[in-house]
Design a protein that fits this description.
The protein is an alpha/beta fold. It is about 35% helix and about 25% strand. Strands 3-4-5-6-7-8-9 form a 7-stranded mixed sheet. A 5-stranded mixed sheet has the order 10-11-12-13-14.
């Protein structure tokens, strides 16, 4: 089951051999199985984790709403779950690749939804929002970020994207909170609540097994998207995210991390350092970009020197603004509004750099 493939730059290792195909349930530890669901993006999959819960199963996260997800789940429920029912869903956060299929599973399996209350409430709200007021808010946000007319044409689709990618969010939820211990199959799983990638992102740690289901809070190889968006336009999510990383430093060094994307890995402490250093570098690059006044879009183009698809550009502008807001809150950046209503950012000591 295990090999010793590892990253040559770090102590991070990938001990689970191979990856499961859609509809496959692959055991990675006693009572814990890996499900990999397809996504219609460049990041083309999301990981779900099926936990043996005695007379049934608990699944952590559900997949996005799509025909491919439905086909995979039908196959799993028909033959891949040892004839036991799915009785509970623990959803880590509101993003559609994690909560998107919860409504279908609740309706077809009777599975109970456990989820951070704020994440559930936001998902419910996003799923039922309709009309021009939503679009107006999105248009205003991206206009102030400096979107040009070509990019503004994408905003209407973005404002409707969430509702298209989820099944109806269940009307009832069992809230989970930071530090809560959830019994699953005779084992204790402690909730570690993070922030930054989502408002209340739940990871699950089993000390007995030395396993952390990190979902999107800690990912290997890629960094979680830390974004400012239309609903909380003045937020400082990067501060929250970096503070959240400290919650995981006390976990055992040989913890097996089960992430929301890519492969299970060990080397948690090394990965935490990599993530922190990545954002240190990004902050310095953001500061350097603003030697002269730049819009959020201008900073995006400075930071991302590769071609971005329509989906990625929204992640990239959110990340650019998150780094700008971090610097703004710490007095290293200033912001003003241009005559056409666009925010311009400039580093505080940039006067000597002007030409």
């Amino acid at each position: 089951m295990r090999d010793e493939a590892h990253s040559p730059q770090t102590d991070i290792r990938y001990p689970i051999k191979g990856i499961p195909s859609a509809g496959e349930v692959r055991e990675v530890a006693p009572g814990i199985s890996w499900i990999r669901m397809p996504l219609p993006f460049k990041l083309n999959h999301v990981n779900l984790w099926l936990l043996d819960d005695g007379d049934g199963w608990t699944v952590v996260d559900t997949g996005i709403a799509s025909h491919e997800t439905e086909e995979a789940w039908r196959e799993i429920l028909a033959k891949g779950a040892a004839g036991k029912p799915l009785k509970r869903m623990i959803v880590t956060h509101f993003h559609p690749d994690h909560v998107g299929f919860a409504g279908w599973l609740a309706r077809h399996c009777g599975a109970e939804l456990w989820m951070p209350f704020g994440e559930w409430a936001f998902a419910r709200m996003r799923s039922v929002e309709r009309g021009n007021r939503v679009l107006d808010g999105f248009q205003h946000f991206y206009r102030t970020a400096g979107f040009d007319p070509g990019l503004m044409k994408l905003v209407e689709g973005r404002s409707k994207d969430y509702a298209r990618r989820i099944t109806p969010v269940p009307r009832a939820v069992r809230p989970i909170v930071d530090g809560e211990v959830i019994p699953v199959g005779g084992r204790a799983w402690r909730v570690i609540m993070g922030a930054g990638h989502a408002f209340e992102h739940a990871s699950l740690h089993c000390e007995e097994l030395r396993i952390l289901i990190s979902a999107d809070q800690i990912l290997p190889q890629i960094t979680p998207n830390i974004s400012v968006g239309p609903y909380v336009p003045e937020a400082d999510p990067l501060r929250l995210y970096l503070a959240s990383l400290d919650k995981f430093r006390a976990l055992a060094g040989d913890t097996l991390v089960l992430p929301g994307h890519r492969r299970p890995f060990t080397g948690l402490h090394a990965r935490l350092e990599e993530l922190a250093h990545h954002h240190d570098r990004r902050l310095e690059e953001t500061w350097a970009a603003c030697a002269r006044p730049r819009t959020g879009l201008g900073v995006l183009r400075y930071l991302f020197d590769r071609e971005l698809d329509d989906h990625q550009v929204f992640f990239a502008i959110g990340e650019s603004l998150a780094h700008l807001h971090f610097l703004l809150a710490r007095g290293r950046m200033e912001r003003r509004v241009s005559a056409d209503g666009v925010y311009l950012f400039q580093r505080k000591d940039a006067e000597t750099d002007r030409r």
